[in-house]
């Protein structure tokens, strides 16, 4: 017989788990909840432990998710619109969630937008057979759900900014040649010269990147296409070293061995940092504040972030970075000082 965890057991397990597991982002949890609703509707009466195993979470986490689903629903949010979730018996029953679990239907505008996007991918990528197959499926589905095929869409992808670099990169990648890049590093406000063996060209969050083995850094790097100031194909084999591996790009930023570990304390007004930036762990206070540990390649990113947040965040460690940020803050305040040690304030209107 499956036993539902008691409230006291859940609270104790949450405390223990929070101290040892990586913090889950809101985006990751939302994805699981969206997958959970249709699955639970199709598996009525599934034991709590089986449902937890299906989604790779503990029973306590599953109960937390069900508690959240219980207060979710369609606009109106009355009793008739909220999801009905029951699990006290040790078995999960979900009702009144058919609208949320129903598959999305494309409008004509949505179908046209997706078709245009896939055609853009097909024309920009090397080895675009996956995009073409997906495009064919979309056209077939659009003909059924929209009522008429979307057809071919004429696209002009050359906006005059990235097209030239993309053409050079595609040519080098197709022929297996190394490329020479002049690349702008925004965090240091400087241009650098690099020789790169291309591993792939990809689009993340509407931004084009080229990933490859950088001989300057002696490691795999990700380069934004709009920061490539010049690109040329070298008459050199562009096969990356055998040890070079593509990064897991669920997040664009992937910590490296030499990256700096930074600890920040932020008020509840700046708690969004934990969801927005990949991190190594978060400790949350009862007032909504948090202490978050980050891995950063360039400390300048942290300095700008903390200064932009004003007094809502501060650097705890390392000490030298904390001192540097404090020094920049004092320098910024001094710019508003009229010499008497008191920052200038606006006077009364005259």
UniProtKB/TrEMBL annotation:
Entry-linked InterPro entries: CBASS_pafABC_assoc_protein, PafC-like, PafC_HTH, WCX_dom, WYL_dom
Domain WCX: 262-333
PANTHER family: PROTEIN PAFC, PTHR34580
The organism's place on the tree of life at top rank: Bacteria
UniProt domain PafC HTH: residue ranges: 28-140
Pfam families, alphabetized: HTH_PafC (PF19187), WCX (PF25583), WYL (PF13280)
Protein name (database record): WYL domain-containing protein
Residue span(s) of domain WYL: 166-232
